[in-house]
Amino acid sequence: MERDIFAELTKLKKEMVISLMELVKIPAISPESGGKGEGEKSKFVESLCREIGFDKIIHYDTFSQGVKRPNLVAKIKGKKPARLWIITHLDVVPVGDLKLWKSSPFAPKIKNGKIFARGAEDNGQDIIAALFAVEALRNLNLTPERDIYFAALSDEETISEYGMKYLVKKKVFKKGDVFLVPDGGSPDGSLIEVAEKSLLWLEIKIIGKQCHASMPEKGINALEAGSYFIGKLKNLKKAFGKKDPFYTPSYSSFEPTKRLNNVPNINTIPGSDIFYIDCRILPGYKISEILAFLEKIKKDVEKEKKVKIKIKVIQKEKATKTEPGSPIVKNLAKALQKVCGVKPRIKGVGWGTCASFVRRIDYPAVVWSKVDGVAHQPDEYARIENLLIDSKVFADLFLQPI
Ligand SMILES: [Zn+2]
Question: Staple 78 to which of 144, 198, 391, 400, CB 3.0 to 4.6 Å?
Fold first, then answer.
């Protein structure tokens, strides 16, 4: 039977490629990032679900900025009443600098076994892989061991407020549900992600005094004070420098990232400097400890540079973890060994996915896919081989006894 399902999927490869090419032609950029939302893409995915013959299609749609944010859930009934969710997302990140693309982001092209397009890897590959895993089951008249709930959600790339968080808020999930989020992984397919570090995003606003650059004594240079603050982040890195090899990378990171424009001309000393810090913190540390340390840096810089500093928390998420010994991890590990022939590495990571929102309310969730990790990059692509492998892993998971 196993061989049959894998052979069936291999037969469906061409169709899978065509479907993925059609899917990624539709941009689905969130209104918050200046796009038209996921409406059209959701309709396309729904039409595929109907063709495949899912037992039930449910909408949990919502709105942001007057734009519909579709959340599509399609179910096929299994032998047992347990539920396995496959959580994918419809939205993509903006294309960024078009000059950096060799191809056109929404006119997919195949080269060297790869499909190039924005959204090909993130998350088109696994939308299509999951749908065709169900199609293969249907073609062979096989019933999955438990109910399969396939979800194609909105708003993953920004904050999930209108996607996964919305479903959590609507109490869509039930006790006993388990989750696979195919939205991150490794090139050999061995990485099973079961934990995420805590996340802390901060805005740092330095207030000095603007003046003519030829008379610096009349002002207070906020850019210089801001840079001094950034220099002090190395103390934070040192104070919270523990390592935990379970996580990749093994340390907590504290990185200054975005900086806002200040004065437009060279001969003015800027009176304000605003920048942001992205922190990914190992679970051994409390977010409050980090904030207290930053408060100390703030006081020092205020005193030494005679500025005022405001620290604002933009986003704060506590670390989450699914036990490496949970059944869903074991099931997935088995499928990986069979399909990819690799020894699974069960790890924690620094980036966030939809899995964290259900882990937070105590549901087991794993993140896995076989990807080169080119999401968000110019010339993003999906390997056709990975598309097929992911579909085989999903199909194997659907049929594994529980
Ligand atoms: Zn993604």
Answer: 144
Catalytic site positions = 91, 156
Amino acid making up residue 144: P
Q: Is 234 found in the same domain as 134?
A: no
CA distance 15 to 21: 10
Dist CA 162 CA 167 (whole Å): 8
Structural domains in the chain (count): 2
Beta bridge partners of 315: 201
Q: What is the pLDDT of residue 353?
A: 85
Query: Could you tell me the distance, in angstroms and rounded to a whole number, from the CA of residue 180 to the centre of ligand 1?
Result: 13
State whether 282 and 214 are in the same domain: yes
What is the whole-number distance in angstroms between the Cα of residue 252 and the centre of ligand 1?
22
Token pair of 313, please?
């928390």
Mark which of 317, 345, 378 sits at the end of a domain: 317
Query: Given 317, 335, 362, which residue is the final one in a domain?
Result: 317
Whether the Cβ atoms of residue 275 and residue 204 lie closer than 8 Å to each other = yes
Looking at the fold, whether 249 and 389 belong to one and the same domain comes out as no
Q: Is the pLDDT of residue 2 over 70?
A: no
Q: Which domain holds residue 331?
A: 2-196+319-399
Q: How far is the CA of 183 from the centre of ligand 1 (A)?
A: 5
Sign of CA dihedral 72, 61, 332, 176: negative
pLDDT in tens, 111-126: 999 999 999 999 999 9
| Residue among 328, 347, 349 at smallest CA distance from 393 | 328
pTM for the whole thing? 0.87
Query: 14: domain CATH number?
Result: 3.40.630.10
